[in-house]
Amino acid sequence: MSDALTDNVLVLVRHGESEWNRLNLFTGWRNPDLTDKGVIEARVAGRMIRDHRIKFDIAFTSVLKRAQHTLDIMLDEMNQPNVPIVRDAALNERDYGELSGLNKDEARKKWGESQVMQWRRSFDIPPPGGESLKDTLARVKPYYDSVIWPQIAQGKNVIVAAHGNSLRALMMILEGLSGDEILKREFATGAPILFRLGADGRSIDRKDLLPARSLAAPPEDRVV
User: Fold this and answer.
1) Would you tell me which of 26, 46, 91, 134 could form a disulfide with 124, CB atoms 3.0–4.6 Å apart?
2) Which domain covers residue 176, as residue numbers?
3) Over 70: is that where the pLDDT of 224 sits?
4) What are phi and psi of 217, to 5 degrees?
5) What is the pLDDT of residue 6?
6) Is there a domain that residue 61 lies in?
7) Strand order from edge to edge, sheet including 203-208
8) Is 170 part of a structural domain of the chain?
9) Contact criterion met (CB below 8 Å) for 198 and 204
10) Considering its fold, how many domains does the chain have in total?
11) Backbone angles phi, psi at 210, to 5 degrees
């Protein structure tokens, strides 16, 4: 992949650290904003993307403010504040149901270590009242196929600022990954991934842009 990208480019970015990431809480569809560290991560992500000289035609994000705030900061850093933004709940984080708002240690005490780990690490077992990653994929895939991909197919450059699990669902689509394979992937907060896509809307090339080690999210925050 060259340093100067022109068209059929999709950039995925997980939001910067949120207030609940810092507190080690299950977040899901709850709506905390970024921490100061999260703001810095978003700024660094914007600068990394700017260095690749990509001009975006449209941006997509969820209806949750941690992702929206991250996108706004990145576009500002790229000096592209007028890029049209589409916000849709299809790109929301996985809904953690009854786990939402709980500290992960509290959840383990209530349901047991093995049960909580099963909810976190399985592809198709949802927590009580929530979604599995399979459920998340079921809403992300039709949105990608009918809304995001048509923009790229027209030769437009697209950026998506979203969440760990909605991005895992997108990664499954782009790279043809299985449920077992995607569970091994981690998404650091504020670390852009650049894809060039083929005529079928699937990845033909990717480049990971990683932030400085001091700004990367710790492992516990990356697995949500």
Assistant:
1) 134
2) 9-215
3) no
4) -70, 145
5) 57
6) yes
7) 85-87, 58-61, 158-162, 9-14, 193-197, 203-208
8) yes
9) yes
10) 1
11) -100, 135
Is the pLDDT reported for residue 156 higher than 70? yes
Write out pLDDT tens, residues 100-151: 999 989 999 999 999 999 999 999 999 999 999 999 999 999 999 999 999 9
86 within some domain: yes
Predicted local confidence at residue 211, as pLDDT: 55
**Active site members:** 15, 93
pLDDT digits (tens, 9 = 90+) for 175-195: 999 999 998 888 899 999 999
Q: Record the tokens describing residue 111, joined without a space.
A: 């349901």
**222 lies in a domain?**
no
pTM: 0.90
- The pLDDT of residue 186 is 82
Q: What is the CATH number of the domain that holds 154?
A: 3.40.50.1240
